[in-house]
NF-kappa-B inhibitor alpha (Timema genevievae), 282 residues
Amino acid sequence: MSVKQNDQNFVSMLLHVGAEVNIPNKAGDTPFHLAVSLGHTQCLEELLESTNYQLGQPQPKLSKKNENGETALHIAAHRMNLEAVNLLCRAGADVNETTLHQGDTVLHIAVNEECMPIIKYIVEKTKIKIDHPNLAGNTALHMSCVVGGKGSVEICRFLMDNKANPYKANYIIERQRMKEQEGTKLKGTSELVEVKQEPDSEPEDEKTPVALMLSERASSTVNSELRMSTEENNGGMEDSEEDSEEDEDSEADDELVDFHGQTSFDLASNNEDVSTVLEIKV
């Protein structure tokens, strides 16, 4: 109640007499969550002041999550409250702690809110893992390429300056169906499907942006693979020039399905400004 009323003196007095600060309310919010949510930064400062705690008194558990799966630090980033972020980090809040439902770190959230002061603080002043993926495999750099529906050149450039990896692929798989047409290039349509995959694992055949850009130039290899598949389906037909030509004609509509995760280059492909930043910094 004292936190809700923004009564920092009463908060300090309660702590000195041994008040328990880690007990959540019905919504799972501790006094730390409430202080940040309400913007009561002075109360938060009192809650984090080590001299307010007696010997043997339970210390603040800043990694505790509410029913939304967020810590006080996550809420501070959502509120774009740099002062609260600073207080929590100095008190030992884990910047690499993730939200329960999306797996976002405080950096993901700050990028999504396009809050450069918090982004700079987290990257420059803490031990954030800049390429840490969330549950969809997206890093902060992935998000910077599409944030706000248009991407952010400023955020992208800053993250790249601090060694973010633009080649890291997320876990969103792009399915490309490419059909061979006589005398034409391979054309494709794509749809997105989510693949459940361990965050630290990546498919061995995952394609880099360079490989993707070269895919259209690899038509001869694709043609060869299609011919091999056709021959197997026809019961091991002999490899003659005449039969190969017949197989190509009869199987012109065969589909080749190609799977790859999306890199930051992929996400920025429709944004010339962001793409230019990625290319220059690599």
User: Anything to note?
Assistant: Residues 176-227, 252-256 have pLDDT under 50 and may be disordered. The longest strand covers residues 172-179. The radius of gyration is 26 Å.
